[in-house]
Hints:
Helix content is 43%, strand content 23%. The protein is α+β, with helices and mostly antiparallel strands. The protein has 3 domains: 53-63 and 257-308 and 317-360, Elongation Factor Tu (Ef-tu), domain 3 (Beta Barrel); 70-97 and 223-243, CATH 2.40.50.100; 100-219. The strands form 2 sheets. Strands 1-8-11-10-9-12 form a 6-stranded antiparallel barrel. Strand 9 (277-282) and strand 10 form a beta hairpin. Helix 3 (99-155) packs antiparallel against helix 5 (204-221). The protein is elongated. Residues 1-7 have low confidence and may be disordered.
Amino acid sequence: MNIESKLSLPSDVETDAAAKLRRTQVVRRILMGVVPLIAVAAGVSWYLMSGRYVATDNAYVKADIASVSPEISGNIQSVLVTENQLVKKGQPVLVIDDTNYLIALAGSDAQLRSAVSAIESDKARYRQKEASLKIMQSNVAFAEREFKRQSTLAASNFAAAAKLDEAQHNLDSARQNIALLKQEEAEILASLNGDPNVSPEQVPSYQVAMTAKLSAETFIKRATLLAPFDGVVSQLPKAGDYARTGAPVFSIVSSNDVWVEANFKETDLTNMKVGQPVDVHIDTYPGRPFKGHVTSISQASGAEFSVLPAQNSTGNWIKVVQRIPVRISVDDQHEGPALRAGMSVVADVDTGKSRLARYFGDNAGN
């Protein structure tokens, strides 16, 4: 036996090797043809069945923030709280020096007393004019009788013409005095608001003085700045700083009600509605999800509220997917750690509808 005959394989071994090769080739063809189809089908199925949950990380915790400004100007006399202190609604925060307004109050009190005295004086003058008017009316009646007597005597040539002229003059003077008294009486009555028995509170001069007093009292009350709602105060001034009317002196962040403002892409809002549940994940507290729900969806995108909105009708235009602010209430905000304004959030909204339902009807894929 030569070497070649010793190295040759039996025929049955060759047959098994060929069969194994053919099986390998068949499996390879199946894997190369069927597996990609399965993968594509699985991908399409996953795409159609997904889309029920819409998420964004462009979301942040929000809270009511107020910049409190005084309605009076003056040096800050004292600051009654500390930085980042929790305060209640109506709690005094700081006091502004109200010396000038106390002086104004004293002056308005004096004006009020002066107005009351002037009103009582006008009432007395009115009564005096009434008494004088009665006397003048009596004088007019006497002058009329005297004029008639002198006229009768003069007609019979028993009285001189000078006596008749004197009687006429006295009658005219008495009548003029009555007219003058009535004008003075009307002037006094006008100052008494048309009523000689009017109470001081109904007279304009008294009301003007009372307004000045109330204004001074109001400014004194407003010298103490109060917390407008429950929250945490910050950016407090120091005692001795000067506070100006209308200029903010401190800020307060609400501690009772916080929410999440999530800016979703416009393509994510197809099935989003008010009331849908939301899983809120806050970066500060990993592993501690919060529950919430959609409260409202803005009627305009954020670009519409910008100072210089895009003018898409001019120049070159590039389509950019817009983001719509969505307000999300946090239902269990008081049951966990504190939520502070500005914290980063990942919001995951359960729309209840997959892409299959979007493309093939509301009853598909739910």
